[in-house]
# Entry
Amino acid sequence: MHERPRHWHQWLLILAAFAAVAILLVMPLALIFTEAFSQGWAMVQQNLTNPDMLGAIKLTLIVALITVPVNLLFGILLAWCVTRYEFRGRKLLSTLIDIPFAMSPVVAGLCYLVVYGAQSVVGNWFSGMGVQLMFALPGMVMVTVFVTCPYVARVLIPLMESQGQHEEEAAIILGASGWQAFWYVTLPKIRWALLYGVVLTNARAVGEFGAVSVVSGLIRGQTLTLPLLVQMWNQDYNTVGAFTAAGLLAAMALVTLLLKTILEWATQNTSQDSAEPTVTEQDTP
Amino acid sequence: MPLLRTQHSVLPGFTLSFALSVLFICLVILVPLSGLAIHVSQMSWAQYWGVITDPRSLASFRVTLLAAAGASGINAVVGLLLAWVITRYRFPGRRLMDALVDLPFALPTAVAGLTLSALFAANGWLGQWFEAVGISVAYTPLGIMIAMSFTSLPFVVRAVQPVLEDLTPDVEEAAATLGATPMATFTRVILAQLMPALLTGTALAFTRSLGEYGAVIFIAGNMPFETEILSLLVNIRLDEFDYGAASALASVILIASLVLLFGIQLVQSRLTRRWKGH
# Structure
């Protein structure tokens, strides 16, 4: 499909695409690091070792470390359920999982505040037990789980659907248990896609802003994640500090893009590998 | 559970995976959503209507809708251009361009907002050129539009790309042999086949833009009646502990985005069925 451009108008199109990418994507990236380093290394180091910054990094990591495994497990369960069985409501289940994608993060945060906040029945019960859900870590984890729950399932469902289930069925008929069939047959086939889902989930969990800002209460030194710290320092006119925190997040985004590209390539290769035997079977008479 | 099953499978684990998935979806997605619905239904119709038709709310609807529409328009054009160039031509930097398209999904929205506001500020790298011709971008509706188009750009590219890859050149060649000009071939043959994907991508970008918050608040200036988006107004009402008004406004965004989501999926499944039917 890819052809070498021959006419001048084709080169013009490519040039326009490069201009769009440069203005919309490359310049913002370059600006982040330029601003962060605008007052030298010492300032960057000072910002990076600021207690607020260290606290924000720690909190962000904690939120991501809880969110990612939860959604990994849920994503596998849902994808297995939706792609391996025919049942009523199958379509509905895979539609419901898209809701977090379509919802405004602020609205998501508000929903959680209404249901789990101190005035609600559930929130009241928890605060009676001495657990504060909203404006604290539990609430921040809960909304992050909500916002990132579609990613693993969305990556796995099309892949597992296209791979089919003949190999798992063969394993079961040959006497494997359900766990063995999953562990030795399914998992090796989906491992790259799974990792891809984890990378996407992690990127969103680390970078979530709107939903978390609603339920965090923005308590300095306590409930500020890195993206919230970016906003806080920007409001304080600590521009270099804000851009340093932004630089950390942008570095995470770049690593995410790199891993994503590698994993997409790996996923395509594995699915081609598993498709090959059927092609040769058809070829040989 | 056998009641639900329409076809038997030898694979075990249906009950476990089904029960846990449904439990998770209920706890994480449906309970909070219905919580909001219950909260809103406790308001009287007059109260609800009063919040929604408040001049400040109406202004924020207008700002949000116009900016999202503008951003989707920009993305339809730029997204189609990027998808076309990436799938059609071979040139140095193509793979890098392909990878960079996903940057808006990977970059936290707060970072995008902070950077775009500095980039388009009156003395910024790009803002100074706009300022020279008398256009202010940062802290105006134009800035909101740019922030929205940044965060939703990948939707159009990634929706159009696979369809463009599957288009076989023979139809275009046939059109060219039958005497169609390149322009006619593009609009009548290629664009016609791309339309469903382009519309889906644009609709997804529009949905995302309606709810965008992080990227916008940095660049918007957030002046009531002028550059205040709906999500921000929800947040302001929350800070004032006016949960009723916040929920009423949130319900408007929520209904709009759910209608868009289900509408897009309905149209998509119709189209794929029609394609497979042929």
